[in-house]
Amino acid sequence: MKTTVRANWTDSLKRGKGEFQSDNPLLNKVPYSFMKRSSGDVTLPEEFLAAAHAACFNMTMAMLLSQKQYTIESLDTACTISYDSDQVTHSELEVSVKVEGLSDDELQAIASEAKKLCPIGQAYSFPSSFKIAAEVAE
Predict the structure, then answer these.
(1) Distance CA 5, CA 32 (A)
(2) In whole angstroms, what is the distance from residue 42 CA to residue 44 CA?
(3) Where is coiled-coil annotated (predicted)?
């Protein structure tokens, strides 16, 4: 499988702006910027890193839990990307799990395995970690 997204940029770093181009209509023409970091009307590249890591981790957890015949009510993962100057330094996942009959020990083991298997997490050269909390589904 291959996925291609084109990122177009015009003007200088501080005055410029960018736009993604993709065959996926949800991503096509999505704007991004450097200077509008808190405006909310454009995306930031680090938001895509966070979204990709959180989604991939959830899908990897779902795969592992399903293989062990657990019934998943929900997996909710927040990803915080930390950066300093011009370098991404860390990705932290905060995971909340509602799964019927899952012990904390089993959850920790599955989450550790998911961290190892998550393709997006594997692609990062910076450190990643996770905090996980379980709520037993009834």
Answers:
(1) 13
(2) 7
(3) none
For the chain, the helix, strand and coil percentages under 3-state DSSP, each to the nearest 5:
30, 35, 35
Question: Which residues are 21's β-sheet partners?
Answer: 6
Strands 17-21 and 6-10: antiparallel
Choose among 13, 43, 12: nearest CA to 26: 43
Question: All domains of the chain, ordered by start, with CATH?
Answer: 1-43 (no CATH), 45-135 (3.30.300.20)
26-35 per-position pLDDT tens digit: 988 988 887 6
d(CA 21, CA 134): 39
Tokens of 85: 């100057």
Identity of residue 109: A
